[in-house]
Amino acid sequence: MSRHLKQSSRRRFLVGATGVMGAAGVVGVATPFVCSLAPNEKAKQVRAPIKVDVSKIEVGAMVTVAWNGLPIWILKRDKQSLLSLKKHEALLADPDSIDSIQPKNTKNTFRSVRSDIAVYIGLCTHLGCTPKYRPELSPIDLGENWHGGFFCPCHGSKFDLAGRVYKNVPAPTNLEIPPYRFIDNDLLEIGYREESEGV
Amino acid sequence: MFNALMNWFDQRLPILSFLRKHLSCYFVPKNLNFLYVFGIFALVMCFSQLITGIWLAMSYTPTTSEAFESIQYIMRDVNFGWLIRHMHTTGASFLFAILYVHIFKAMLYGSYQKPRELVWLFGWLLFALFSAEAFTGYLLPWGQMSYWGAQVITSLFEVIPFVGDSIAQWVRGDYTVSEITLKRFFALHVIGFPVLIGLLLFLHISSLHHVGSNNPKGVDIALKLDGKGKPLDAIPFHPYYTVKDLFYVLLMLGLFAAVVLYVPDFWGYFIESDNALPANILSTPDHIAPLWYFAPFYSILRAVTYPLFGIEARFWGAMLMYLSIFLLALLPWLDRSPVKSLRYKGKVSKFMFGLFVISFVSLGVCGVMAMNATALFIAQVSSLIYFSYFLLMPWFTKFEQCQNVPDRV
Fold first, then answer.
1. A127–B156: do the CB atoms touch at under 8 Å?
2. Whether A154 and B306 lie within 8 Å, measured CB to CB
3. pLDDT digits (tens, 9 = 90+) for B75-109
4. CATH 2.102.10.10 fits A50-196, yes or no
5. ipTM of this predicted complex?
6. Alpha helix (H) ranges present in chain A?
């Protein structure tokens, strides 16, 4: 084979060119197959925002609604728990939400637009399980240092009532907050996006 | 008449010569023990999975609204659907149990060593493919465990810095596990992976037949030949091993039938009870655990709880899990012992292999248990032993004192 190829540089060039064109062809044909697996336009379309009336949520209670295939938690916190949020900041991994994902106007201690109403995407930032809502203080299974919050049963991650992650647990960041706004005093719109403002 | 017909065929397609080469004239060491039937067991279970799988696909619907319903339909309305489905679910667990013994045998007798490195590598790829096949199949019933198991495992890709989210979305075809994911897992489970498994099985067995079987003593039988060039310590595969294998296959199938008919869920280990609930995207089951055959690797994933070099803990957990599987592929090059079988290796090798088996089993036990401090500690120690076994192997196999391997089996 190589003996024949040495005979002419023209043949060598043709073999090389065919190889390069062949490789380009393989990449070209592979492209639609690889891209076909990525989320398509229909899946990417942000589904219509949903509206939730928060006036009916009791203080201390949490409701779960589905938006965009994600569980969304809406939690009404009492004054007591809001005041205690500052106290255990030393136990938290990201108390100022610097590495976490949230809309700009919720990057505060309460991690919310209105201090009593908290809205989170109810998926653990570790591997996407839904953590359990555990508002009680210092229960037996969670220990002395539990100030109320969310506990992930899958791998033991802990979050406080502001969705802030504790240190030394598998989850790296605070619970994600979806884009939302209050369109009325007690009417919450989840999935509202900046671009649609003013329309 | 018959002979003439067979000859006519053989001149056009050498079937007879092929069978002679691979059965009656394929020479196998005469000292193969019980552990050597597990390769045949695996082939039998593959065939069973293929047949039951085709029948299940006839009645299954891969949509989020109907997947769970169609499983109920198979269980209640399809004639013998309950039996075919339980054969498929039990078959998956049996196949993995068989594969683990098969791998154990290869490690025990050094069957991965020269000249069988390719046999081992093809086998390793097969194990990876079977894992992918089992994982995609587990999503199909669209139960709570199906959904959340897939959610957790596809999230593993998110831990890769910078591009992780895109990769996870590419794998799912959506931002969370959805109908798009279900449909592609179905396609891969019934067509994609089975075709690859078939190809790899062909390569695994072809490469084995080219170099011949190892044996419990690790003696190279090709070194002692009789006048006709046949190994002195070998017997033809057919009829000696076909009969032996057939006997054990019947025993295994008896055990298989007993499990299928009496305890198809195997007390929650073959079919998890949470999977009897349809998938609910708003709530994770309290105790989420993989099926038993993935538990050892899941344990390694969970064992890493602290960040390192500024990268989060879950990244290292996932990396260690992948590494734990990858290290197995390197075994032929990590083992530098002059002898194959553990019988003639030194004390350190025996001790380390014992520790390795114990660590693997305890990782499995921790993996199916709920997360607590004790389980975490045991999983961490076991992971350490698991990795030390592979990483220290080049040294302890090189410097230890081995026994002399006999000339003949």
1. yes
2. no
3. 999 999 999 999 999 999 999 999 999 999 999 99
4. yes
5. 0.74
6. 2-7, 9-36, 41-44, 79-84
